[in-house]
Amino acid sequence: MLAAILIAAWGAGLAWFIRDARRAPRLPPPCDGIVALTGGQGRIETSLRLMAERRAALLLISGVDPHAVLGDFLMRTPHLLPLEVWLHTTLGRQATSTLGNADETAQWVRAHDVHSLIVVTAGYHIRRAMMEIARAVPDVALYPYPVQPPAMLHTDRLATWRLLVVEYDKWLLACIDTARWTRPVHGLIRHDDIRPASPSS
Questions:
Q1: Calpha distance 193→63 (Å, rounded)
Q2: Is residue 154's pLDDT more than 90?
């Protein structure tokens, strides 16, 4: 009986999670900064567009390839952006996971005196990312801006369902803060949701 209740609760939570992951973003208020978490299509492009629209004055792209430079992203951007956008963009090269993104964001926030932040990542990743970043910078106002990667356009595919189930389970684990106990080995584990951006990706 208890197992059936737990399975039903897990299934209901998954249904809510999928619906939440597919929601269109709301335009955030103007903020001090934006952080884009690498690891999927559309995140960097969206953050650069928000910068061009003057939604924030500073941008951190967290989790890029250690050898990447701003010129690599300039060549991959379909639209010409003001020079001011690139002059106020920082490439974060330390993060290799969501927890690493949170730590890298916290360092950048403190270094640039940021008090409000737009978080750009995939819709299925936004809840967990917001949770971890909020723990790292509890005094900073956070505004989610989820993007929809191509996989979310095909929710009938097994690969998409597998992705959503994995992300849902990761979010559940984040809710009980399991990362706190695994932090010493966290950087040694491969995390598929966050893959460092590189010129060839």
A1: 11
A2: no
